[in-house]
Specification:
The structure is a single chain. 43% of the residues lie in helices and 7% in strands. The chain has seven helices and four strands. The chain has a four-stranded antiparallel β-sheet. The chain is α+β, with helices and mostly antiparallel strands. It has helices spanning 7-47, 87-90, 94-108, 123-137, 140-143, 166-175, 198-201, and strands spanning 115-118, 160-164, 181-183, 191-194.
C-alpha cells in the first residue's frame, strides 16, 4: 500500500526546494558580479589612461618606469604646469613657466588643462634621448629632425616645454601668442618656447623641423 505524503510534508519539501533555488540564484548572481568586475578591471588595466597627443617616445613619454630619470628629467603622467614638485617643470625658465601658467589659467575657462610631457632635461638625459633616436630612426640625420644635442637643445637650458593632449596644443595654437608662447617646429605641435615679442607681433615663422633652426648648427 502506497502512503500519500501529508500536507505538512509536502509544504516542507516545497519550502526546501524554494530555499535551495533562492540560494543557488544568489550564488550565481554573486559570481556574475565578481566576474564582471574582474573583467572591467582587467580591461582598464590593459588600456591604461586616456591617450594624449604629444611627442614620440624619445621625449620621455615612453620612458616612464617609476623613476624620474637623471636629475629628475622625466615627467610622470598627469603632471600639469602648476606642479611645484617635479624638476622637469620647476626648473623651466621662470619667464616660460609664468607664461605657461597664465595661459593655462585662461585655458581652464575653456575646460582645457596643460599637461607637461617633457620640460627641462639634464644634458645626460638629452644625450640618452639622442642615442635612442638614432637607434629608432636609423641615422643621425633623421634623428636630428626630432632630438637635438645636449649642447643645443632648448630643453636642457629650460627654455622649451612639450605640452601633452591635443586640446591643449590646439588652444595654444590659437591663443599662445597672446602670452608669448610659440610653436617653433611644424613637425612638433607640442613643442613650445617663449617669444615675448609675439605678444605684439605674433609668433615668428615656424621651422619645418629642428634641422632648419640655426641654433642647432652651433
Amino acid at each position: 500500500m502506497t502512503r500519500t505524503p501529508s500536507s505538512s510534508a509536502r509544504t516542507t519539501t516545497h519550502r526546501a526546494r524554494w530555499l535551495l533555488f533562492v540560494g543557488l540564484t544568489a550564488v550565481i548572481a554573486v559570481i556574475i558580479v565578481a566576474l564582471t568586475h574582474q573583467s572591467q578591471k582587467a580591461s582598464s588595466s590593459a588600456s591604461g589612461p586616456p591617450s594624449s597627443a604629444g611627442p614620440p617616445s624619445h621625449s620621455g613619454q615612453g620612458d616612464r618606469r617609476g623613476a624620474l630619470g637623471e636629475d629628475g628629467s622625466v615627467v610622470p603622467d598627469g603632471v600639469t604646469v602648476f606642479n611645484d614638485a617635479i624638476p622637469g617643470v620647476t626648473k623651466l625658465d621662470p619667464g616660460l613657466l609664468k607664461a605657461l601658467r597664465q595661459a593655462a589659467t585662461a585655458a581652464a575657462d575653456d575646460g582645457v588643462e596643460f599637461y607637461v610631457n617633457s620640460g627641462r632635461r639634464s644634458p645626460e638625459y638629452q644625450d640618452r634621448l639622442l642615442r635612442e633616436a638614432v637607434s629608432k630612426y636609423g641615422s643621425e640625420d633623421e634623428a636630428a629632425r626630432w632630438v637635438a644635442t645636449a649642447s643645443t637643445s632648448p630643453h636642457v637650458s629650460g627654455d622649451a616645454v612639450d605640452i601633452g593632449r591635443t586640446d591643449a596644443t590646439e588652444w595654444l595654437s590659437e591663443h599662445g601668442a597672446e602670452y608669448g608662447l610659440c610653436q617653433i617646429y611644424r613637425n612638433e605641435p607640442w613643442h613650445y618656447e617663449l617669444r615675448t615679442e609675439a605678444i605684439d607681433r605674433d609668433c615668428p615663422r615656424m621651422y619645418a623641423d629642428p634641422t632648419e633652426d640655426p641654433r642647432m648648427q652651433q
